[in-house]
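Quick one, T. Sequence first:
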Amino acid sequence: MNVPFFSRRRKAVVLALLAAAFAALAQAAPPSHPFILFQPSELPAVRAKVQKGWIKAAFARMKGQADAFMDVPTNPYPLEGPAGGRATAGRVLNVRLNTLALTGYILEDARYLDKAVQILEAAVTQLGVDDFYKFNEHLAVADAAHAYAVAYDWLFPHLTPGQRQLVQNEVEQFGQWLYHDSNNGGGFGRYDPVPLSCNHNAVHHGALGLCALVLGDKPEWLSWAQKYTLGYYEYARDATGYNYEGIGYYGYGELGATTFSAAFKKAGGPDLLAKVEKNRYVSEYVLRQLQPWGGSVIALNDSPDRLHAASGLMYKAVATQDRVALWTWLKLLGAEGDKTYGMPDPYLGGGCSGPYTILFADPNLQPLSPQDAKLPLGMFFARGTGTFRSSWNDDAAMAVFTCGFDQHRGHNHKDENSFAFSAFGESFAIDPPGQLWETRSHNAILIDSTGQGRQIGGYDNFGVMLDQKELPHGWYMKGDARDVYRHATELEKASRQFLFIPAETPYIVLADDIQKAHGDGEYSWLLHTELAHEIRFDAPQRFTIVGRSGAACRVQLLHPTEGLAIAEVDQTGQNIKIRGREYRYSRHSRLLATKWTGRNPRFVAILAAAPQAAALPEVTQAVDADTVTLTIVMPHGVTDTVTVTRDRLTHSRITK
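Structure tokens:
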């Protein structure tokens, strides 16, 4: 058989052609260095700012990651980072390349730069667009395009002419795929508020814009990226800056949009961030989700309780010289927060945050606490969420209530009329982090063992915020979730009233008014708390949650007065499959629930917290027709009265 001879001959021809091509490239005029994000003349200033303060600590963490990346093999190049999968391969590549490159420039150490070049060449020669598409469709393609575009720029002086051409070709292929996909039926090329509001839009078109900037001859790509990035800024958040998808997807979307916007502005383009006024308010959205003790957030919608990709928030803080935004960033990610500086170990799939943060950081910008800035303790967001706290101290109480519109529906949880409550360093009523979207994973109500659902023949229905106001001693909200219980087609009412009083012993009062038009129903009142908490039952309708610090929260169901008992639900073996991944409920929370059967339960409950159980207030109630009156006697000489009717909650206080 002549196949081996033919194979050797064909190989020889291919090698000869490659040799001729590389010889021609070596003689050709080299492409110009695009210089996006920083110029060589700016490196001395970057080296200076990493010598002190929080930026020094952030750089030390980045250098630690760069040192670990020196051991990444290149033959073959490993796609996955620790604790990640192939879906995040492009993001991992971006982290490795940028971290090594910027560390090498700051330390003036060619070893890091040489390693980055080796990884870049290995990835380009071993993988293509089709490979990344198989990993995670257009998102993985965009992640890789982002990585290749920035690496081509940052490593340009350290690439041979042949390597430059190789990477330039890759950037062009990936950019062409993104542009074609967006122009020819790709879901995130549709100029409509729903896809525009999604992180996918920002990641896809931010990467396209970066490819256009480094290539320099793709005006149609640049125009398209600009249009869709502005669309993301316009529709991803409400008028008050609230990001619909949740804080994790906010960070990932901003990684694409902000990196492109910063590079575009540096190249002489318009300031895309400044074009949309609501961008100025996004940092307050993050602040208002931040737990009082820092390091984590209330995880509303599809979100972890951390912000992995944090460079977008840093860029906004510096661009607007927002000192409170810098305080927020440091309280969440710095020495007083989770200490990752936006570079979590071992997970790399959140995206390239560290190097961009170092570049964007301003050593002259000093943090300012919300207390010193005299910011109010509560805020109502336009989309129907309120967040409130008793102070800006670490031991403050914090309460959140949500019922309203979400622009992007793919990451919208079925959590209308749900709440969360933290105090004295403990999360007592939690919104479990992650993709547990259904109502049973939130502090809400089930009707006939079923939660809120999607519109018949459509996508989502949403709750409506009926009322919200600041009171002399707290905050009040009232949400209507009637339209989201799609299985209960004859539901007349599904409202919940929420009252938060930030007293020395802070408390929440909840009042539900739910009723079918005909017949009885089974109604379940739900509360989730952390796995590590202790739960002590002392009455059928009352229990106390005790945290690791000894701080306690008493939960008391006050109405109906009969036929009501609350107990912990054994979640062992109860799972849900979401996007191909199976979640075990028992790994995310402890669930307390009650079931009541009848026409109109009108649940009334109170959650009160104290530094220890002995300091919890005494609560009694009186029921007269449609009115429930609560008396809350606190240990420090304060007595509150809360009157609950179907229409409103009223609060008054007597101080001795």
